[in-house]
Amino acid sequence: MRTFGLTPGQQVEIITAYAAAMKLVNAVTPGPGWVTAGVFWLPSTATAPFEIIGLVSVNTNVLHARLWDVTAAAAVPNSEITIAATVETRVLSNPVPLTGGRLYRIEMEVIGAGGSGTLFTAGLTGVI
Does the pLDDT of residue 117 top 90, yes or no? Predict the structure, then answer.
């Protein structure tokens, strides 16, 4: 078992605040076809990039991922990112402000005429 400690200071950096497990989703056309890839509680307000690693089975598909604020019942503005590659690809959003004390959902959809997409992991990265 590995543990981590915090050093007192003005800032604390957390490498990954949350990571969703791998999820395979069949392509749909037309969208939307959002499905839940993971859910997490954010205890404190933060601004962080949303990161995904994924791929699509055919190059005509596009994997979309976003954060959904369950508490506010709305998509988190500027959190949607996409992948259209058939090899594992990492994509980060610009830093997204998130309100603490809320439940968030990681959602994904794959738009295309056939095939699928795989979200290997998703989460917040570089929380400061």
Answer: yes
Q: Is residue 10 part of a domain?
A: no
Sequence letter at residue 69: D
Determine the Cα–Cα distance for residues 8 and 13; give it in Å rounded to an integer: 12
CA distance linking residue 123 with residue 128, whole number of Å: 14
Q: What is the pTM of this model?
A: 0.84
Q: How confident is the model at residue 1 (pLDDT cuts 50, 70, 90)?
A: very low
Is residue 53 in some structural domain?
A: yes
Q: How many domains does the chain have?
A: 1
- Residue 10 confidence (pLDDT): 61
- 63: containing domain: 22-119
Instruction: Please list, in sequence order, all residues whose beta carbon lies within 8 angstroms of the beta carbon of residue 97, skipping any fewer than 6 positions away.
Output: 45, 46, 47
The CATH number given to whatever domain includes residue 36 is: 2.60.120.660
Residue 16 counted as domain residue: no
Of the candidates 127, 117, 128, 119, which has an alpha carbon nearest to the alpha carbon of residue 50? Answer: 127
